[in-house]
């Protein structure tokens, strides 16, 4: 998941770690440039400019 740019807190929840420090220990062996290239290779998330907006009158 870290290779795909999933936020650390999401990985923490998926692994069931109570302490974020434990999760980060697991990820120390991953090369930063590998993470960056993976994130840059993914398409950017896009949503409509009006998504989630409600106009109340």
Short description:
The protein has 57 residues and is mainly alpha-helical. The protein contains 3 helices and no strands.
Q: Helices and strands, in N-to-C order?
A: HHH
Residue share in helix: 40-55%
Number of separate helices: 3
- The overall pLDDT, averaged over residues, is 77
Total discrete domains: 1
Rg to the nearest angstrom?
16 Å
Q: How far apart lie the N and C ends?
A: 43 Å
The main β sheet shows up as: none
Secondary structure elements and pairings:
Layout (H helix, E strand, L loop, with lengths): L7 H8 L4 H8 L4 H10 L16
Kindly describe this structure:
The protein is built from three helices and no strands. It is mainly alpha-helical. The longest helix has 10 residues, at 32-41. It is flat, with a radius of gyration of 16 Å. The model has no long low-confidence stretch (mean pLDDT 77).
Jot down its keywords.
single chain, 57 residues, mainly alpha, 3 helices, 0% strand, flat
């Amino acid at each position: 998941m870290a290779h795909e740019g999933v936020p650390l807190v999401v990985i923490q929840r998926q692994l069931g770690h109570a302490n974020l420090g434990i999760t980060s220990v697991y990820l120390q062996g991953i090369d930063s440039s590998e993470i960056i290239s993976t994130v840059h290779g993914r398409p950017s998330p896009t949503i409509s400019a009006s998504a989630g907006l409600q106009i109340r009158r």
